[in-house]
Design goal:
The structure is a homodimer. Chain A is of the alpha+beta class. Chain A is built from 5 helices and 16 strands. Helix content of chain A is 13%, strand content 25%.
């Protein structure tokens, strides 16, 4: 058996019938979650990016946290602005970035070229499920409507956290906030230093591996050196624009549910067979709110 | 200028001569570090893995934290145990794993088949540079001799933290601790829940992108489905076994130095042109102790 050497072997041992009662893994809790613990994502909030190589990347947008940027992104998708777009930057342990890059293409109707700095929003009015562990980047951390958030009760702000697969808006130096035409997804350790400095507009809910496995760019900041290396994008559409029969559908776990509270507790205290020492805490970005295909 | 849209544009604006004094970035501090702030890595502590596709991955071993496992790894390298090894598992946002997988090849001389559980070591005797930010996984976090550590002053343990590019020893269920024959490198958000559960033996100091950009395995836990997908490894050697003229050499920043203290402060408080709001804190795994080629 020395050759198995799995990191999380417990998941594969179901059926091995241990004498003691089985301790639940996070995956067990997701698999057993009642229908009431799930919320369907509005197809108008799903951005579907099809790469020319056949890979599909689906982004859940967060209009409640960056409304002007997200409205821009939707207007760009609906007007086929991204025709000819590519992934032109892949920086290891940081981001993959796509769009038209050096294009001077005019903005289509409905786009606000200079959006406000939607880096934070007021904490007031948000129902937060606290993480229950300390956060290095903010006085508070937790979950709002399925999203990882950092916040300050004293200063009154809240922001979407930069975690693995988070999607943000590329920008130049301040006061530029970016239009939404150039987007990036995080493909490394959550670069939380970007929190409150860049507009986070969503997260990849399927196909992040299609970006994270791309060759890294060799120029400064991970830009590809030659345009021949750019990864062509066939289409970027909203799911709501795709015929219903072909439309991908997703649901996320309600972070206000008892099921999520259980999931969060177990994430912080893995006690299944592999985890000989429960951590007693968890990083905001390691919780990974469950999102799955809706069947 | 809307088309530039860089995430960290400040680095490219040197020479643009702003009127105010230039605020240092972490990279500036690394570039300006005195020779006294660097420590050379012993070539006997560098594991050089050459992939058949030409990519090279260099791992700095940490014998001071997992002596028996590291001694095993050195004995395996010296005896060419890994002839025929492959990367056979790549799980997105988690690990790339390599070795002989299902082989029953006998252990060479000098290998301890059942090492002790070197998941922690005593805190006593370690000179720690504290992180200065809270850590979700341990009462304390900081740096020892160039390594990110978590620790408990009360319980008296310290452990190498699982960060991006950390290298650990694959194992089966406890009490198995793994031999060192199967190793993995982290290619996603630091899976700190593995701290004190697995032996960390080092970190990739060059070429992590050669692992992180590999196609993801589609079987459970990211194992490749077909052996034809395995990524062949040409050789795994210690740098000390490579002729001096071809031997790669590396140095890391002394985490006890004033330069590192400055670097750490700026990491927690980015205040260059792009960062409009310094975070006031930093995640242990986002500090990234500087390591570079020694010329």
């Amino acid at each position: 058996m020395r050759s198995l050497l799995l990191l999380t072997a417990a998941a594969m041992l179901i059926g091995a019938a241990p004498a003691k009662p089985k301790l639940l893994t996070p995956n067990d809790i997701v698999a057993g979650a009642p229908a009431s613990a799930w919320k369907t994502i509005d197809p108008d909030d799903l951005l579907v990016m099809d790469l020319a190589n056949g890979g599909r990347v689906v982004v859940q947008l967060a209009p409640q946290f960056a409304p002007v940027h997200v409205a821009n992104i939707k207007a760009l998708a609906r007007s086929n602005y991204w025709d000819g777009a590519t992934v032109y930057r892949v920086q290891d342990n940081y981001v993959a970035q796509w769009g038209l890059n050096d294009s001077e293409k005019p903005w289509p109707k409905g786009v606000t070229p200079k959006p406000p700095a939607e880096y934070t929003r007021p904490l007031k009015g948000l129902a937060i499920k606290p993480l229950g562990s300390p956060d290095p980047y903010a006085p508070g951390a937790g979950f709002v409507d399925g999203w990882p958030m950092a916040y300050s009760p004293k200063a009154g702000w809240a922001n979407l956290a930069h975690c693995y697969a988070s999607v943000g808006v590329g920008r130049d130096l301040s006061p530029d906030t970016g239009s939404g035409g150039e987007l990036y997804a995080v493909i490394g350790h959550g670069p939380r230093q970007l929190d409150r400095v860049i507009a986070v507009v969503g997260r990849v809910v399927e196909g992040i591996d299609k970006l994270s496995s791309l060759p890294r760019g060799t120029e400064a900041l991970g830009f590809y050196k030659d345009k021949a290396q750019y990864v062509p994008i066939r289409a970027i559409r909203l799911a709501s624009e795709i015929p219903a029969s072909e439309r991908p559908a997703f649901e996320y776990m309600d972070t206000g549910s008892a099921t999520f509270a259980h999931y969060l507790r177990v994430r912080a205290n893995r006690h299944d067979d592999f985890y000989i020492r429960p951590a007693g805490g968890v990083d905001l970005c390691n919780v990974q709110v469950p999102v799955r295909r809706k069947v």
